[in-house]
Amino acid sequence: MVGEFEYLILSAAEHLGEEAYGAAMREVIETTGGRNCSLGALYITLDRLEAKGLVDTWMSSPTQQRGGRAKRMVKVTGKGARAAREFYEAVIRISRGTAWAKNPRNQLPEDAA
Amino acid sequence: MKGQIGIRSMRWRCIEATAGLLAPLDREVVLGDLAETDSSVWRGLGDVLSLASRRQLALWKGWRPWAASIGLALPASLFLMGWSVAASGAVASVLREPAQLSAWGFSLSRIFLVTCWAWMAGFVVGSVSRSTLWASALACCGPCLHCSSLWPGHGLSFLRLLVFLVPGLFGVWRGRQELRLGLSLAVSLASAGALAFLISGKGGWMYSSSLLWPGWYLAATARRGSA
After folding, report:
1. Lowest mean pLDDT, pick from A30-34, B60-64, B180-184
2. How far apart are CA B53 and CA B62, in angstroms?
3. A105 part of a folded domain
4. Residue B177 needs a FRET pair 20 to 30 A away by CA distance; which of A38, A61, A102, B222 works?
5. Number of domains forming the structure of chain A
6. Nearest C-alpha of chain A: how many angstroms from B19?
7. Mind listing the pLDDT tens digit for each residue in A8-25?
8. Residue A72 domain-assigned (yes or no)
9. Rg (CA), chain B
């Protein structure tokens, strides 16, 4: 099963579709996922996901916006999508009946106390 | 306005210089991402350094950096310093009494062996772990600096200890480029390395045999066939 950060990367890449690459994925993880993400952590994790066959990566042609430098494009493979779904379903299953899953918008018992 | 642009370009140059720590593909991708997002200098430096340090840490999970630095550069520098002193001493005695033919043969064989062994060790260090050469350099420099500080001679005479560095560095340079030798050259070097230990007989059997591996590693990984 994938780890939490691997899941975030797979989800960000899936959201971005054909526009999935390092800087764009970092922005999605930081704005939507609400956590800091260094490019070091991102690319090392991408290498690991690629080695497991969960994503494919390739270099795009250079663009002016990036000072004539190429992007490392990312695409989630079928195996990657299955691994992400497995993680997602496990989180949903294990969360059933928990205070934060029952009333996600309400206060938690500790907050009320 | 002009000053702001100047500061910005200076910050960018600082990030670009730090990105020299990365491999070319990583450098291109990371600098492109940073150029596109217009990150602050500290964030940019953090991104570059985090990737460089993680890449280095990943390398140390394998056997190659350990074999090159602790397994070869460190013990070989100690061994080769002794051989450098012996070879330079033999040359000095020949220069004092040039008429003795046996002294010529002895000093030439010493120089030949120290050159072969240093080149071979450098080649293996360069080819086994190209990305962690800094660690091998540190492992070699430590004993060299220590022994140089204890050297009893005057002036630049401590350079006698470091004669091996010239063929050794040449070997590192070739090892980074070629990775593998031809079979006949590799076997010749391995035999010369074994001969050096048979002649020296210093440092104990364990120490000597642990230093034989570079020659046989080169022979085992040598290019076969005519190509």
Report:
1. B180-184
2. 15
3. no
4. A61
5. 1
6. 12
7. 999 999 999 999 999 999
8. yes
9. 23
**A65, A66, A71, A73: best to mutate for the B interface, most B CBs within 10 A:** A66
Examine residue A112 and state whether it is found in any structural domain, yes or no: no
Of B25, B51, B53, the CB nearest to A39: B51
User: Is B94 a residue whose pLDDT tops 90?
Assistant: no
Task: Supply the pTM of this predicted model.
Answer: 0.73
Interface contact B54-A59, CB threshold 8 A: no
Q: Which residue has the tokens 């934060």?
A: A100
Is A19's Cβ below 8 Å from some Cβ in B?
no
Sequence-separated (6 or more) residues with CB below 8 Å from residue B30? A22, A39, A43, B19, B22, B47, B48, B51
| Cα–Cα separations (whole angstroms), residue B68 to A47, A98, B122, B126, B215 | 25, 53, 9, 8, 13
**Residue ranges per domain, chain B?**
2-59, 64-220
Distances (CA, A) of B163 to A23, B68, B77, B120, B123: 50, 20, 11, 15, 17
Q: Write the ipTM.
A: 0.85
- Main-chain dihedrals φ then ψ at residue A21, nearest 5 degrees: -155, 175
Query: CATH number, domain at A22?
Result: 1.10.10.10
